[in-house]
Amino acid sequence: MEKKIAVILGDGIGPEVTQQSIKVLNAIAQRFGHSFSYSFGLMGADAIDKTGNPLPDETIETCLQSDAILFGAIGHPKYDNDPTAKVRPEQGLLRLRKELQLFANIRPISTYSSLQHLSPLKSKQLKGVDFIIFRELTGGIYFGKKELSEDGSYASDLCSYSKEEIERVSHLAFQYAQKRRKKLTLVDKANVLETSRLWRKIVQEIAAQYSDVAVDYMFVDNAAMQIILNPAQFDVVLTENMFGDIVSDEASVLSGSLGLLPSASVGNKTALFEPIHGSYPQAAGKDIANPLGSILSAAMLLDHFQMNKEAAAVREAVGWTLANGFVSKDIDAINNYSTTAIGDLIMDHIERNADSDNS
Ligand code: IPM
Ligand code: MN
In which residues is Mg(2+) bound (predicted)? Predict the structure, then answer.
């Protein structure tokens, strides 16, 4: 198959981890007889430096003309410490999500037996942990009306949701649940927020169409606790934009490192694949960042192309590096491999195992 992939390297460690994914995708193309072409676009602090705009129109165009988008990371400390900055890197990503209508952000949380010692949780709690967070990505408080009074003494962010916005992501989450352990948990704050009550009402209605899926409802404060106390209870977690942002970082500690977690953002146009970690500026350019979050995002991209054997080959190679201690500094502070070395090991492993496809 021929596929066009838009690549946005972004900020911080974005470029170096994404380069490893490109190597891995090329190894997959070679082994399985596909042809992937890449078009690069600017976004984030990098784009502001070069063009003054966190998301130039050409980048949106490139994305729309591609079959999928591979994205690195966004953010730069010079903006984080300047709350008055009018142009910010994150605006690029938020606008891209909106322009491409990437309304569902899918974040799978898995655990690896060789990494259990890294999690602050006891291995007893980690047993059987395997869930997916469905985070609504183009609505809620992230995109509501923002205000700052002229004298700077008052600010407000509006949280709003429409029925349609809730329905489309909910249907997707229910469909995933049907293919998994058939359990869906809606995380909200329906005891306080009107938007959460609307979510609950709509999810209750939709649930009737998916009678094989067991639904439960959990307030977000309790969910934050349950993710640590009893994470194995979850299968599909459905939630609004900001709650999803927060609980997914929390859930990443179950895996042992934020550097391991991939995500897919899907909607009606081109889908986007990115690690859930940020730009990690302290590590930028040092070749020490964990590339697995990006490489596993590339595996999700292959699944999106219906290339399931190919995606499985990437995951197998990732599992092989973890099981053999070919890991980055976040996982092993003493015996570790560089970002590039891990990318090379995975690429070689995929090439080396090409024979198994014909057996
Ligand atoms: C994420 C990030 C983004 C978000 C930031 C960079 C805008 O934290 O993808 O989780 O808050 O959505
Ligand atoms: Mn986040």
Answer: 221, 245, 249
